[in-house]
Amino acid sequence: MKKVLIATANKGKAKEFESLFAPLGFEVTTLLDYPEMEEVEETGETFKENAILKAEAASNQFKVMAIADDSGLLIDALNGDPGVYSARYAGKEKNDEENIKKVLRNLQGIPAEKRTARFHCTLAVSVPGEKTLTVTGECEGMITTEKLGDGGFGYDPIFWIEDQSCTLAQMTREEKSAISHRGKALEKLKEVLPKIIN
Ligand SMILES: O=c1nc[nH]c2c1ncn2[C@H]1C[C@H](O)[C@@H](COP(=O)(O)OP(=O)(O)OP(=O)(O)O)O1
Ligand SMILES: [Mg+2]
């Protein structure tokens, strides 16, 4: 079976990539399969810089094609926060529960129509000896006032999708991937990398 290395240690992302690549005949390996590998410091100021950092570190180390995902939640009423710092919004230990609480606290009193937000995903593909390539995807939604649903990961329980009238955490993995920032970025990747992905 063909293998693809996804340079992430995030369990939620890993599950989504497994489902996305399975129909293409790929076995997904992630950094969760290499717990001894040190985490790459995300020193970039943009999703693109961080995605490239993560992809190149993994492809250099393992000498294989690696795909990294840098993503986050941008909330209009918070001037785009938590943005690139989404994972560590409530502290460096990366706690989804605390991050959600902080968002809801900072949006207290903000009316529904002003709770617009989007998820962003940049994927970087690094092949040893070749120039790293990036694609992006976004998903528009609204921030709820309480958690709804227990699927997905990260900020999914407070991210409301108007068209489906539910949060991302109330969807199946397939439903989420069909509309998500990650799913859209991967669709673009399939177009630019047909030889590798198909
Ligand atoms: O579909 C999503 N549904 C909900 N939340 C999401 C999603 N996509 C990204 N997010 C949030 C989670 C985390 O707070 C941040 C990503 O941070 P980000 O640095 O890219 O990932 P990470 O540090 O968890 O794992 P890694 O760098 O090993 O891939 O945005
Ligand atoms: Mg990270």
UniProtKB/TrEMBL annotation:
One of its GO terms (cellular component) is cytosol. The keyword rRNA-binding does not apply. InterPro entries: dITP/XTP_pyrophosphatase, ITPase-like_fam, RdgB/HAM1. Its cofactor is Mg(2+). Substrate binds at T8, A9, N10, K11, G12, K13, S71, F153, G154, Y155, D156, K176, H181, R182. Pfam families: Ham1p_like. It comes from the Bacteria. Binds 1 Mg(2+) ion per subunit. Keywords: Hydrolase, Magnesium, Metal-binding, Nucleotide metabolism, Nucleotide-binding. One of its GO terms (biological process) is purine nucleoside triphosphate catabolic process. It catalyses: XTP + H2O = XMP + diphosphate + H(+); ITP + H2O = IMP + diphosphate + H(+); dITP + H2O = dIMP + diphosphate + H(+). Pyrophosphatase that catalyzes the hydrolysis of nucleoside triphosphates to their monophosphate derivatives, with a high preference for the non-canonical purine nucleotides XTP (xanthosine triphosphate), dITP (deoxyinosine triphosphate) and ITP. Seems to function as a house-cleaning enzyme that removes non-canonical purine nucleotides from the nucleotide pool, thus preventing their incorporation into DNA/RNA and avoiding chromosomal lesions. Homodimer. Belongs to the HAM1 NTPase family. This is dITP/XTP pyrophosphatase. It comes from Jeotgalibacillus campisalis.
